[in-house]
Amino acid sequence: PLPIENGIAGLSINEGEEEAWQLHEEDGLQKSLYEYYLIGCFLTASVFYRELDIDRVINGAPWMFNNHLLIFHRLKENDDLMQVPLVFSYFWVQIHDLPLRLFSKDIAKQFGNFFGAFVEYDAK
Questions:
Q1: 14 and 70 fall within a common domain
Q2: Nearest alpha carbon to residue 37 among 49, 29, 47
Q3: 107 and 78 in one domain?
Q4: For the chain, what is the domain count?
Q5: Environment class of residue 48 by beta-carbon count within 10 Å: exposed (0-12), middle (13-18) or buried (19+)?
Q6: Cβ atoms within 10 Å of 40's Cβ, excluding its own
Q7: Higher pLDDT, 9 or 74
Q8: What's the CA gap between 43 and 57, in Å, rounded?
Q9: Which PANTHER family does this UniProt record tie to the protein (predicted)?
Q10: d(C-alpha 86, C-alpha 93), whole Å
Q11: How far apart, in Å, are the Cα atoms of 73 and each of 10, 36, 40, 105, 106?
Q12: pLDDT (tens digit, 9 = 90+) per residue, 56-114?
């Protein structure tokens, strides 16, 4: 894996796009907490001001931009931006025509671990 610096070195934003990526601080907001920072692969660090917003981004994954997967990491206070491993993303996997006898959390864990790492099970 290449360091983040190498991955973003060739990126540029032309003037027409620059306005869309600027973050404007809300009036009266004096303090940003690390828990509201989110960094992503080939994007700049973004600051969220409400827990609801950051939860929607994290729980709404996977996100795509120009057919490229966006990978996010919730920044912690002592995280070094250049050392954050942006190497995995959560995906919902739905299996069709599964026999009823295989509808169990243990089977779901086996399927999940086959694809990557099991996170959550929903029997709906």
A1: yes
A2: 47
A3: no
A4: 2
A5: buried
A6: 18
A7: 74
A8: 14
A9: DUF4283 DOMAIN PROTEIN, GLYCINE-RICH CELL WALL STRUCTURAL PROTEIN 1.8-LIKE
A10: 21
A11: 22, 11, 6, 27, 28
A12: 887 777 888 778 787 777 777 888 877 877 777 777 788 889 898 888 889 889 988 88
Q: For residues 96 and 84, state if they share a domain.
A: no
- Same domain for 13 and 67, yes or no, is yes
CA triplet 35, 36, 41: central angle to 5 degrees? 100
Residue 97 sits in the same domain as residue 83: no
Is the domain of 20 the same as that of 72? yes
77/104 same-domain check: no
Is the domain of 66 the same as that of 99? no
Phi, psi of 38, deg, nearest 5: -140, 130
Q: Residue 23 corresponds to which tokens in the numbers above?
A: 């973050």
Helices (runs of H) and strands (runs of E) counted in the chain:
4, 5
**Amino acid found at 91:** F
**Using CA atoms, how far apart are residues 51 and 37, in angstroms rounded to an integer?**
10
CA distances from 23 to 1, 17, 44 (A): 29, 13, 11
CA distance 84 to 8: 14
- For the whole prediction, is pTM greater than 0.85? no
Cα–Cα distance measured from residue 120 to residue 100, given in angstroms and rounded to the nearest whole number: 19
